[in-house]
Structure formats: structure tokens, C-alpha cells
């Protein structure tokens, strides 16, 4: 893998970050017809305004991944509680999968959680995103079935946590 930099997204990158996120979810079967999630995925400008938006950039300066970090009680927080840091919309460009980018972004979230003094990192994921589940479990995340939920009928999101 070429050199990888993880950093906050720049304003001139937001359109590309949104397109990357949408492409990643489409490739991983993370989109469900009729629920409107594609519009949320592509709106990186809103995520950058209301949450922390990180990007992964390879040695050539190409955007290859992204993740959104949300604190409890903020607009992008879905299941986090006091003392937890949540991440969402982890996406790796389909042409860059298998290079450790998702792991690097997840590790950056864990490091950010430590920086802000969070006791736990949490996330939820669609049942279909099995590759992501394997990554989270390999990094020590465990299931939290008590926080599984359905944002739309027939769309089940399963919850994970990593205690720090």
C-alpha cells in the first residue's frame, strides 16, 4: 500500500468525498431503495459542518476513504450516549478496497475517541456489510444487540462497541 494520510476533509474536497461515500455504499450493498439514504451519503458538506469528517488520501493525493465522527446528542449521532464517540458512513472507494484503508480510518476514530476522553466507540451497520463486521470484530469491537434498531421498515442496523 502506498503512503496513506488520514486528516480532516478540506472544503474543496467535499463534493468528491460525498461521491466516494455513495460509491462505497453502493459497492457494499449498503443502499436500500426508497429510504433516501443516498442523499445523506452524498452530502459531505453537511457532515463536515455538523460532525467531524475525516478522509484517507493515498501517496498520490487521491481520496480513497472517509469516515464521519459524531458526538452524542449531535445531528449525526444515532446511538451514542454520554461518554461514547460514534462513527458512521465509513467508506472506501471501490477501487481501493483490500488495502487496509477501512482499518486505518477505524483506528483513527479510536485514536480520536481517546483524545477526547471517550470511554467507548460505537457504531451501527447494516446486516449486509459483512466485510465491515469482520474488520470491527478483528479490531476488538463486540456486538451490542440491545442497541440494534430499524431506521426504516425492513432495514435492520446492528450495533457494535469498543470499550477503551
From TrEMBL:
<dbReference type="InterPro" id="IPR016181">
    <property type="entry name" value="Acyl_CoA_acyltransferase"/>
</dbReference>
<feature type="domain" description="N-acetyltransferase">
    <location>
        <begin position="4"/>
        <end position="164"/>
    </location>
</feature>
<dbReference type="GO" id="GO:0008080">
    <property type="term" value="F:N-acetyltransferase activity"/>
</dbReference>
<keyword id="KW-0808">Transferase</keyword>
<protein>
    <submittedName>
        <fullName>Acetyltransferase</fullName>
    </submittedName>
</protein>
<dbReference type="InterPro" id="IPR000182">
    <property type="entry name" value="GNAT_dom"/>
</dbReference>
<dbReference type="Pfam" id="PF00583">
    <property type="entry name" value="Acetyltransf_1"/>
</dbReference>
<dbReference type="InterPro" id="IPR050769">
    <property type="entry name" value="NAT_camello-type"/>
</dbReference>
Amino acid at each position: 500500500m502506498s503512503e496513506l494520510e488520514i486528516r480532516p476533509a478540506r472544503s474543496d474536497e467535499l463534493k468528491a468525498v460525498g461521491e466516494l461515500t455513495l460509491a462505497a455504499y453502493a459497492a457494499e450493498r449498503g443502499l436500500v431503495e426508497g429510504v433516501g439514504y443516498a442523499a445523506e451519503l452524498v452530502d459531505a458538506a453537511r457532515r463536515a459542518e455538523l460532525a467531524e469528517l475525516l478522509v484517507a488520501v493515498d501517496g498520490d493525493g487521491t481520496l480513497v476513504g472517509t469516515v464521519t465522527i459524531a458526538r452524542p446528542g449531535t445531528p449525526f449521532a444515532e446511538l451514542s450516549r454520554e461518554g461514547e464517540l460514534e462513527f458512521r458512513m465509513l467508506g472506501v472507494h471501490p477501487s481501493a478496497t483490500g488495502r487496509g484503508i477501512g482499518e486505518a480510518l477505524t483506528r483513527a476514530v479510536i485514536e480520536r475517541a481517546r483524545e477526547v476522553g471517550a470511554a467507548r466507540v460505537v457504531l451501527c451497520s447494516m446486516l449486509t456489510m459483512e466485510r465491515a463486521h469482520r474488520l470491527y470484530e478483528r479490531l476488538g469491537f463486540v456486538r451490542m444487540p440491545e442497541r440494534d434498531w430499524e431506521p426504516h421498515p425492513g432495514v435492520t442496523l446492528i450495533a457494535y462497541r469498543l470499550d477503551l
